[in-house]
Amino acid sequence: MTNDFDDSRNRKNRLLKLLEERKAAQEKKEKAKKIPTIPFSPIIIIPQFIKQEYKILKEPIDSVRLLPNGKKLPPPFEIIELENLLGAIKNSFDSKNKKTRVYETILESALATTRPLLELYNLIPQIWNGSSTAISDFKKILDQSSRHVGFRPHGLKIKKDLNFQKLKSMADRLPGSGGLGPCGPIFFIKPDVIHSIQESIYFMAGGNASFLQNSMAIVSQLWKNTQVLDTLNVLANRPKGDVFPELSGYMDRVAETYRLEGNLGKIEEQRIKANRGNLGPMQSPMGGTWFPPEPGFPFPPPGPNGGPSFPGFPIDCQPIRDYCQDILIGPSRTYRGEMPTSVSSTEITRISSTSVCGGYDVIIEGQGFGNVQGNRGIVFGTIEVRIKSWSDRKIVVTATSHVQGTVCIGIIDRDKENRRKEIHRTNQIAFRELATAAGPCLSMPGRIIDLPYKQDSPVCIGVNQITIGKPTIRHFTINNAKNPVVESGSDLIMKWEVENATSIRFSTVPNPRTSPPRNFPSGNSLFGIHPLGALTDRNYIVHTYTIEAKNSCGTSTAKVDVTVTASYKLNILGIEVTQAIQKFNWNDPAENNSVFLVSNKLTMVRVYPENTLTNGFDFGNGPNRIRDVEARLEVKYSDGQISYFSNSYDPSSTILAGAESDLNREDLSQSFNFILPTQKLDGTCELTAEIFKNPRLGLGNFASSSTSVTFKKTKRLKLALILVNDTINSLSAPTQQDFNNTFRLGKGRVPIGDTNFTIYIPTNHREISTMSITYLIPNVGMISYHEDLKTESGWENLLDRLDDIADDYDGSDDVIWVGLVPSPTTNIYSWGGLANYGKVKGWFDNHKRLLSQNNRPGTLVHEIAHTLTIKHAASINTTTNANAHSCGSPAGVDNSMVSTIEDVGVDVLRYKNKTNSPHVLPKGVPSLMTYCSPTINGKNWSNEYSWVSIDLWNRLKNNF
Amino acid sequence: MRKYTSFYTLIGQLKKAETRQAPADQLQFLPMFLKNRTIDLGKIISQKSDLNALLFDKNRDLILKIPLGISSYCSGESSLESKSVRGYIPYDEKTAKISFEFNGRVIQELTIPPVIPSLIIPNRFEKELNQEKVELKWSITDSQKMSFVSKVFFSNTDGKSWIPVGNRTNTNAMEIDTRNLPGGKSCCFAVQISDGYRNARVETNRFSAPEKPPILMIIEPIAGAVLKEGELIQLHGQGFDINSQEPILDNLLWESSIQGKLEMGSSAHVKLRKGKHKLSLRLLETNKDIVNSVEVEVV
To answer: In angstroms, rounded to a whole number, what is the distance separating the alpha carbons of residues A690 and A134?
Structure first.
């Protein structure tokens, strides 16, 4: 097949011409025969036996044609009905109504795609009856139809590469091009089924081109698989005398259908045979139904084993038939067609007043009203009014206050109106059924537009026009909008248009904080354009402007809300990557993110937003602050993989973006904070952040920035853990889990990967007890050795025992021996922790060892630092440093160490877990190696919350 | 220089005078135990220290001068009283006296009797050690009638490596829980005694002990943790082989009571569905089912 669009316009014109001719012919026919309105069916009535024998169908074809000899094909009755309905709907509905247009589309499509097939099918009975004319017409139609294959209704081109997703989703139900599906590649589907599917698609699409294309792909597939035209063509071109042998025994098959229905007797069978060629309805032998069944009745049941009723014919695709049967049934049974006119106005010649208030009388003059009102009334537009008197030439009514503005008066015939409603009701049911069936059949959304009812209204003929009630405000806008959003500083231009008013007044509601521009015009002009002045507000505020229009009937008002806003742009000031502490300064970005980053360690990315507001405009969050800004982060890892993060941690996904000068790094709520999963943090990672206000790509509301950082591995930390049971002071030993938790909270301050540590277990000393023992050493004397942790010597002795044990285990010198002692509820111990200074001399003291109280993560890290030869940092002056509230005096101070942290620290784990402890450690907080306790945001904390300085971070990293 | 293979480990504290009447400085040290070590003595001797151990023979001739390490506890370096002393003093059979000099002044002297104490362990173990508790006893014979401190050791490698059992003790017996001991085909106990300097050591007969299962530890998440659905959750755990005294970081499988098998490895990141999970760490490739679990809740 080839596509042929060359004469599509001509065909369209021919179609329209034919429609007009058919409509005229039908009107003439109706007048002549006075045929009552027949319920319309968009589904073509096709003889049942033909339905059974459709082998295959082809792609939808267009065109209404004249035979080559100029003879018009007698249109099938059903097609005329279709055309009538189309014309009726076009006339009765507002052409701008979208729903009506959709409906027209369906009907036009039905005409365009079904006609050739229907004509062919209608010819077949005549062929069977030996009509050579019918055979000739059949071939001609086929020839012409074949040439026109490829035309699509409304110019819709179905491309081969259409998205077949819909079809795939139905693969289990519908056959595919590769023979998939329940019926394989060869099957036959009744053309009216396919036709109905196609109708449904147009109906459902509602003008959505992509939806239409996707859905039509399914129909295209169905047409291709059925290939009905090809088959019919083959049949039509067989030698004379051998025409349609496959169909010659059709009556037998009809009989079989009866037999399958269960109650067919010989008499009925013979009667049917005797009526060969009579395809009209007949009483069903089963009683109560008609045969052949009318469209919408259930199809005959299948033959044995679910196969075809007629041997030798391909399988009717049962799933599709089942699936789509409702499409046939619903609309075909209920559709009624055109709705009659119920309101007239041509009888009216004059009305007593062209402008009245509600409640006043109006005299309608004319002729032919009739002396009796009967079941008629007067409508103002679509509203019925009370009738005071009725005569053939004069009707007095009372104007209703329910109508305002200018309307036309008419006479309504309630009987016609009721018929109109009844037809609409049945039409509406048909629409709903069509939609209901189309949903499951085509996997389409179930929510379908409803067929609207439009009440009939009088035609305006000039003399029946009246203006009623209060003034009508046709237009009232500011800056051409009902509720404009206006930039601060902009001028306001007011526009109005009023009808039926005697006076006009404008006003605005003064705001306590500001005064909106109010240069209102004087006079009572019913329309105009007027400048109000410039907005001077610096706040996000709404001004309400009101117009009041008065006449003798009353006052009408309208309001416009003017929202004051300010434009701005978003920027990203910087992207900070921190694990515990980081250098970051947007005034000196050279050293940003220069603090060593450890591979596979919990890491937070802070994205600092900025906006360009500088005029102090307040959106309600303080001057120059923008709310509801969102952020995303893209991380490209060293292996090339990319992850996206859209959910920053608290403060959720929205944030206030202030100007640069307002940003404070010590406030975590002023940055978008993304916590990265640790497992891929190794090597160089590229970070790209974007911030935006929805809509994301809105003008000026989007900014992005990139940076790259490198994560490097550090040595694995080896810890030999001994749990200390303090029998001297009756305190139970901590557990392994206690250690896990303590170290979990502390390791954020140590430059190691989150899991880059190993725990060694001294098999026979997993738990030891404090003890007191006395040694008598010759010449030396008694040595009393006790491990009472209430005394300093007790701590020292216990620490020595750790060394003794380590020595007996042949512990290697890179293992840190950790004795975790209990944490008393009252502070009875001399120390929180104790450690030796690693290899001070560098030649002997080879067992790094420490003691630390349980649940003191800061102390544990402090002591670990000691085992790595790191000494204390000097105390700080708490009177001059607001970030510390108390300090001890440590021994062994290394004056080269810094005592307060050099930049902003973040406890990422506590922040992630939203604990109540400080998440941000402001610059100036005491270093972990002091004996000082921090004050953070005015609150005093224990020295457990002192933090790692950059200096300490680097020393730890270098000493591993 | 003579090559020494056995060294005493000196663990002590250098104490400053507590009162004006007391000796100026004291060296308090634990009874020293002898241990075979490979040590570069020349490197030690080349060090300089304020505290030295001087080894003299019976003729008061100096055999060796051994610098001792002085380090500080973090609690005090200059202002506090004590310093930590460590040293390796080589065993020389000619040593008759050790003088400890601090800044050139003798602050402690140790006279070493010429006789060696004898030590006997009467216990005789079956070929296979099956009992959970062992009462190990030993007897000491010393003509000097000194008091001794004992250490007990255990070897599962036919004496090639040792681990300590229990604490230093003044008694001559120790009840040992064998369930904590590593297993092996050739195991034995050893007792070593010291009166400060003089040592004696005796090993028991060899026996086999059953190998012990590895210990599995779940480090993260902690038991009872409340975790968030949809977040990557850090799993971290490890094993420790008692028999080889080595950590186990491979062949570890994480499982969830709700989601089944999760990940392999010492550490992993997973997303857990809502609910109460029993997270298990399982060691594969062992004959026994070694598993440890924690319960967490995902909300």
So the answer is: 73
Burial of A340 from C-beta contacts in 10 A (0-12 / 13-18 / 19+): middle
Contact A850, A796 (CB under 8 A): no
- Predicted confidence (pLDDT) per residue in A945-958, tens digit: 999 999 999 999 99
Mean pLDDT of chain A: 71
Q: With cut-offs at 50, 70 and 90, classify the pLDDT of residue A856.
A: very high
Domains of chain B in start order, with CATH, are 6-111 (no CATH), 118-209 (2.60.40.10), 215-298 (2.60.40.10)
Q: Answer yes or no: do A677 and B269 touch at CB < 8 A.
A: yes
Are the C-beta atoms of residues A194 and A144 closer than 8 Å to each other? no
Chain A: closest CA distance from residue B29 (Å): 8
**Closest approach of B43 to chain A, Cα-based (Å):** 8
Query: Cα Rg for chain A, rounded, in angstroms?
Result: 45
3-state secondary structure A375-413: CEEEEECCEECEEEEECCCEEEEECCCCCCEEEEEEEEE
Q: Which two tokens stand for residue A243?
A: 């025409």
**B161·A837 Cβ contact <8 A:** no
What distance in Å separates the CA atoms of residue A253 and residue A236, rounded to the nearest whole number? Answer: 21
Contacts of B133 in chain A (CB under 8 A): none
Assess whether pLDDT exceeds 60 at residue A937: yes
Contact A201, A215 (CB under 8 A): yes
If contacts are CB pairs under 8 Å, which of residues 152-181 in chain B contact chain A? 153-154, 161-168, 170, 180-181
Interface pTM, i.e. ipTM: 0.94
At B241-257, the pLDDT tens digits run 999 989 999 999 999 99
Residues from chain A contacting residue B78 (CB–CB below 8 Å): 891-892
How far is residue B72's CA from residue B53's CA, in Å, rounded to a whole number?
A: 19
Closest approach of B165 to chain A, Cα-based (Å): 6
B273: Cβ contacts below 8 Å, ≥ 6 apart: B229, B258, B259, B298
* Max mean pLDDT range (A7-21, A146-160, A397-411): A397-411
pTM for the full model?
A: 0.63
Residue with tokens 């179905």: A158
Integer-rounded Cα Rg, in Å, for chain B is 26
User: Mind giving me the DSSP string for A697-725?
Assistant: T-TT-EEEEEEEEEEE--PPEEEEEEEEE
Nearest CA in chain B to A866: B74
Asked whether the beta carbons of A325 and A299 are under 8 A apart, the reply is: yes
CA–CA distance from B245 to each of A761, B100, B158, B160 (Å)? Answer: 8, 37, 15, 14
Tokens at B212, concatenated: 């012990």
Contacts of B30 in chain A (CB under 8 A): 775, 783, 785, 800, 804
- Residue B222 has its nearest CB partner, among A740, A776, A892, at A740
Alpha-carbon distance A208 to A534, whole Å?
Answer: 43
Q: Searching chain B, which residue's CA lies closest to the CA of residue A800?
A: B11
What does DSSP assign to residue A296? T
B196 chain-A contacts, CB cut-off 8 A: 775, 777-778, 780
Local confidence band at B157 (pLDDT 50, 70, 90 cut-offs): very high
pLDDT one-digit tens code per residue, A693-731:
776 655 557 889 999 999 999 999 999 999 999 999 999
Burial class of residue A596 in the structure, from the number of CB atoms within 10 Å of its CB (0-12 exposed, 13-18 middle, 19+ buried): middle
Is B75–A796 a contact, with Cβ atoms under 8 angstroms apart?
yes
Q: How far apart are CA A299 and CA A692, in angstroms?
A: 59
Largest CA distance in chain A: 147
> Quick one: pLDDT band at residue A820, thresholds 50, 70, 90?
very high
